[in-house]
């Protein structure tokens, strides 16, 4: 029934202005602020992301958005230079000193937080 429906992802932040600055300046995304303080992003592939303000925002404990990249090493280096700090995991998921997980069973992934604590990732398939 929904196979042909257009889709988009959305999640909340506690400070839209801080999020707009982070997503545009640190990640280099084209951000539009629309009605009700909502931020919209449209990607070349046609996918859309909406970030909305929520006073009692609580970040999820899981990844809310993934960026698929061609070269994770280069991407992590560039994002680190822009001030992004990658999360470190030890245990069932292990990351190296850069914050990259190379499990061998799946994609190569590095996770980081936005200013509201939402977990994002860059992923090389």
UniProtKB/TrEMBL annotation:
VOC domain sequence ranges: 4-125
Pfam family membership, one: Glyoxalase
Transmembrane residue ranges: none
PROSITE patterns, sorted: VOC
InterPro entries, alphabetized: Glyas_Bleomycin-R_OHBP_Dase, Glyas_Fos-R_dOase_dom, VOC_core
Protein name per the record: VOC family protein
């Amino acid at each position: 029934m929904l196979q042909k429906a257009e889709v988009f992802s959305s999640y909340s932040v506690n400070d839209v202005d801080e999020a707009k600055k982070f997503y545009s300046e640190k990640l280099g995304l084209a951000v539009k602020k629309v009605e009700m303080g909502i931020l919209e992003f449209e990607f070349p592939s046609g996918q859309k992301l909406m970030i909305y303000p929520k006073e009692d925002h609580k970040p999820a404990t899981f990844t809310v958005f993934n960026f698929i990249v061609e070269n994770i090493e280069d991407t992590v280096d560039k994002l680190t230079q822009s001030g992004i700090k990658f999360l470190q995991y030890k245990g069932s998921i292990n990351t190296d000193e850069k914050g990259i997980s190379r499990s061998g069973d799946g994609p190569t992934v590095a996770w980081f937080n936005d200013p509201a604590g939402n977990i994002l990732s860059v992923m090389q398939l």
